[in-house]
Amino acid sequence: ATGVGLFRSEFLFMNRDGELPSEDEQFEAYKAAVESMAGMPVTIRTVDIGADKPLDRMSVNELRHEHVLNPAMGLRAIRWSLAEPSMFRQQLRAIFRASAFGQVRLLVPMVAHLNEIKQVQEAIKRVKVQLDDAGQKYGTVELGVMVEVPAAALMLPLLLKHVDYVSIGTNDLIQYTLAIDRADEAVAHLYDPWHPAVLQLLSTAIAQARAAGKGVSVCGEMAGDAAFTDLLLSMGLNCFSMHPSQIPSVKQRILRADTQRLAAVLPRILDSEEPAKTAAEALGPHSRLH
Question: Which of the four, 31, 156, 162, 212, has the lowest number of CB atoms within 10 Å?
Answer without folding.
Answer: 162
